[in-house]
Design goal:
The complex is a heterodimer of chains A (231) and B (90). Chain A is an alpha/beta fold and 231 residues long. Chain A is built from 10 helices and 8 strands. In chain A, the strands form 2 sheets. Chain A has a 5-stranded antiparallel β-sheet with strand order 4-5-8-6-7. Chain A has a 3-stranded parallel β-sheet with strand order 1-3-2, with helices on one face. Chain B starts with a strand and ends in a 9-residue tail after the last helix. Chain B has 90 residues and is an alpha+beta fold. The chains are: A alpha/beta (231), B alpha+beta (90). At the A-B interface, helix 9 of A face strand 1, strand 2, strand 3 and helix 3 of B.
């Protein structure tokens, strides 16, 4: 595998302090840009030198992306809210405990302290061939290394495989779908809101991405309506 | 793999339900067929087993992940009928 764990390839680091600035930077750099949230997915790619973006847009300084707010119909969770904050939030625990429970299933406490809800739903697949830098379908190549007689595919798909057999690894996604959450994005055309289940896509739609975000788009918040809140 | 569900029950009947699974496919899947099949049904072992079987219809295992089919079937059953009822009868 093409693993050189010394230094990351050079990139320009941008640290915007508002959603508007972050979205503009993403739009300006298009396909050369990389969104950095908690870094749990990003730094694997960058340190392994498998993804080499020219511009990294670090969202950690954007206050408006953090925290849980109550709305007229439920709650809105900023995309940069950490998983630990989701797990411990009193209103989430009381009314949307399914989400708190699912967020607590993610990895370890250290990772939940750093990892964000927006990052958890937007992370890339954990297929080891793909992440190891093999030129598979998902990486723009013409083969799936996991779907071969000798392929190591213990973690892979049992439904809807289409060339690529990788799966989405998010623990919080099924809870968000069950709670009928809405994902709020800032795009070059303005705000866009989609149902949780429509945020995710399979290889039949785009084999290189797990979600609908296009270059220039930013996931800003997740809204949960009170429809399924515990009473 | 994980399964999450939200439901509203009336007595032991399932009135409204949403259920989803992840790590079964490239996207998290909402199991609409399961939702339709269990709506109005009692929340018991029979309904859970029916839902579990329905959830894995069409599943195709690879060389080393066939375990995911009974796993998903049982997780769906547990989501519907409750953890106490989780013992698979067949």
């Amino acid at each position: 595998m093409a693993v050189i764990r010394d230094v990351m390839a050079a990139f320009e680091l941008y640290q915007p302090s508002s959603v508007a600035d972050a979205q503009k930077l993403l739009e300006q750099h298009g396909r050369d840009a990389w969104v950095l949230a908690g870094g749990l997915d990003s730094f694997d790619w960058l340190k392994d030198r498998i993804k080499k973006p020219k511009a990294v847009v670090d969202l950690s300084g954007i206050e408006e992306l953090r925290g849980v707010r109550t709305t007229a119909d439920g709650i809105e969770i900023g995309a940069m809210t950490t998983l630990t904050e989701v797990v411990n939030h009193p209103i989430i625990k009381q009314k949307y405990d399914l989400l708190a429970q699912s967020a607590e299933l993610v990895a370890s406490p250290q990772i939940r302290n750093q990892g964000t809800l927006g990052g958890n739903v937007s992370q890339d697949t954990r297929c080891w061939y793909y992440r190891g830098g093999w030129p598979c379908y998902r990486a723009g190549g013409n083969i799936c290394y996991a779907d071969t007689p000798e392929g190591r595919n213990r973690e892979h798909a049992i439904l809807h495989a289409d060339r690529c057999v990788a799966v989405n690894p998010s623990d919080s996604a099924p809870a968000l779908i069950a709670l009928d959450a809405k994902f709020v994005m800032r795009t070059p055309k303005g705000e866009r809101v989609v149902d949780a289940e429509d945020y995710f896509i399979g290889p039949d739609i785009d084999i290189t991405r797990l979600h609908i975000l296009q270059p220039g788009d930013l996931l800003t918040a997740i809204r949960i309506p009170s429809t399924w809140a515990a009473t | 793999m994980n399964v999450a569900s939200a439901m509203v029950t009336s007595g032991d009947r399932i009135e409204r339900i949403r259920i989803a699974v992840n790590a079964a496919a490239a996207r998290p899947l909402r199991l609409k067929a399961v939702e339709d099949a269990v709506r109005g049904k009692p929340r018991n072992t029979a309904t859970g087993e029916m839902a579990g079987r329905l959830a894995v219809q069409g599943a195709v295992p690879l060389q080393f992940n066939a375990y995911k089919i009974p796993l998903m079937r049982n997780l769906v059953k547990r989501a519907i009928s409750g953890v106490e009822e989780a013992r698979w009868a067949s």
